[in-house]
Amino acid sequence: MTRWIQSILLALLLLGELLPVPAGAQETRRAVVGAVVGAAGGGVVTLSAIVARARFQREYMDSAEDLIHWQSIPMIAAPAVGVVFGLAGPKAHVGSIVGSTSGMVVGAAVGTGLGWLLSGDQEAPWAGGVIGAGVGLTLGGLMGGFRGWQREEDPGIAFPDLPFFTISIPAP
């Protein structure tokens, strides 16, 4: 029953994006929605990391204390990234949500296919789908968010100047 309640609350939260809001509150609402959607995405990426660790390293979770490891980082980082994209502007916010959702779907499909093709184990398609969903969600969300942020006419946060460096190899 709680899954239905969570689904309804998430749907209402996302549909709340369509309602008109005063200009000052839009930024706050985008940040809150970014944090909530980021927390859900962080859960998917964490699950993906747990499955990858179990599948490839044969390390399994015995208790909740095993979550205090590197694979729990997405549970903290994803909501923070969602807030940043929410504060950056509507194009970055929508780009990150659309990119992460489509990336998750494509990643799950590719991961399932690869798991089915590359392994004869019966859990391989499922594990590949979960791992692919986490990878696709991460890449799609970051790419969509940064792309939207670059296209923002009046970003709430200035797009960071990425450091560029060159490497030169002396030729004889």
Report mean pLDDT, rounded to a whole number.
80
Order of helices and strands: HHHHH
Give the tally of β-strands: 0
Distance between the termini: 71 Å
Low-confidence stretches: none
- How many helix segments? 5
Structural class: mainly alpha
Describe it:
This protein has helices at residues 2-15, 23-57, 73-88, 90-118, 124-150. α2 runs parallel beside α4, α2 runs antiparallel to α5 (124-150) and α4 (90-118) packs antiparallel against α5 (124-150). The protein is 70% helix and 0% strand. The protein is globular, with a radius of gyration of 19 Å. It is mainly alpha-helical and 172 residues long. The protein starts with a helix and ends in a 22-residue tail after the last helix. The protein is built from 5 helices and no strands.
Short key terms for the protein model shown above:
172 residues, 70% helix, single chain, mainly alpha, 5 helices, 0% strand
